[in-house]
Amino acid sequence: MATRSSSSLPRRVALLLGALFVLGAHACSRATSAPAGTSKRSESVPLSVENHNWLDVVIYVVHDGQRTRLGLATASSSATFSLPLYFLGQGREVHLLGDPVGGHGSVTTETIVVQPGQSIVWTLETDLKRSYVGVF
């Protein structure tokens, strides 16, 4: 009987050490979580759209070669959107595109370079070709 218990002891120790190794490796592999409110995904750039046009305008952001719909800027009103920082990419460059609902001809901004902490104000005029954008 003494032979059995002595052979099972190293086996138990090996299983215990193996379990501790797996738990330790799992704990080390987890990314440390950032404090609340500091996550890169939660950071964003505010975009304010002042629509002086008589048509509703669908607002898009063009980034990294793709167009993403942000929402609708209702006629003769203002709308606020958030651009996640990952939309800005490495160069922190985007274009804004406005497509009037039921109208002809969309409007696109020039390349906008935005840094974290800045905001964008886009004013859509009655003649969309006269619209302008500012980064503050």
Structural features, described:
The protein is an alpha+beta fold and 136 residues long. The protein has two domains: 1-30; 44-135, Immunoglobulin-like (Sandwich), CATH 2.60.40.2890. 21% of the residues lie in helices and 38% in strands. The protein has one helix and nine strands. The radius of gyration is 27 Å and the shape is elongated. Mean pLDDT is 81; it is low at 29-41.
Outline the biggest β-sheet: 5 strands, antiparallel
Low-confidence stretches: 29-41
What percentage of residues falls in helices of 4 or more residues?
10-25%
What is the CATH superfamily label of the largest domain? Domain of unknown function DUF5300
β-strand amount: 35-45%
CATH topology of the largest domain: Immunoglobulin-like
Number of helices: 1
CATH class term of the largest domain = Mainly Beta
**Overall pLDDT:** 81
List keywords for this structure.
5-stranded antiparallel β-sheet, 136 residues, alpha+beta, 1 helix, Immunoglobulin-like, 4-stranded mixed β-sheet, single chain
Structure, briefly:
The protein is α+β, with helices and mostly antiparallel strands and 136 residues long. It folds into 2 domains: 1-30; 44-135, Immunoglobulin-like (Sandwich), CATH 2.60.40.
Outline the fold blueprint:
Layout: H1 2-29, E1 44-51, E2 57-63, E3 66-73, E4 77-84, E5 93-100, E6 107-108, E7 112-113, E8 120-124, E9 132-135
Parallel strand pairs: 1-8
Antiparallel strand pairs: 1-4, 2-3, 2-5, 5-6, 5-7, 8-9
